[in-house]
Amino acid sequence: MTAKAHLPLPWAVAAAAVGVVSYPILHNYLLPALGFMFLIASLADRDRLGHPSWLAGRTWKRFGEWSYAFFLVHVLVIDAVGVALSSSPRSTIEGLATCVLAFAGSWVLAALIYRLVEEPMRLRLSRSPAPPPPTPSVAATTTDSLTETG
Q1: What is the spatial distance between Cα 30 and Cα 32, in angstroms, rounded to a whole number?
Q2: CB neighbour list of residue 136: distance below 8 Å, 6 or more residues apart
Q3: Residue 12 burial by CB count (10 A; 0-12/13-18/19+): exposed, middle or buried?
Q4: What is residue 52's three-state secondary structure?
Q5: pLDDT tens column, 2-21
Q6: What does the radius of gyration of the chain's CA atoms come to, in whole angstroms?
């Protein structure tokens, strides 16, 4: 018997789309958040059932590894780009270019942090500690001391 998905993917995509389209009208984050929550749950459910999605590829796995570092640095990068430009964008093109610069810069910094900090620390902390050196038995210690004195 084949297990069935709890929320079919087309319904989850529709829920996410309704959330995105409704935001400019309602100015509420709840509907987009719920829509994407259903979409992520549906995709995870498909993976669990053995139907991997296009998000199961190597590139998306790498973005998943970098995502925590991205979460930590993206606001700092956005602020740094704003300070570096020292003026508001004068056109839509400049605004989009600023966003792309901040977004790309955040991912580059996240990749570096993952590679240079997170991955080495994870490897260091996941190693099992070296076993303690064996302690000599009482009989061996007594025999050795008798041999040395005799």
Answers
A1: 6
A2: 144
A3: buried
A4: coil
A5: 556 577 888 888 988 888 88
A6: 28
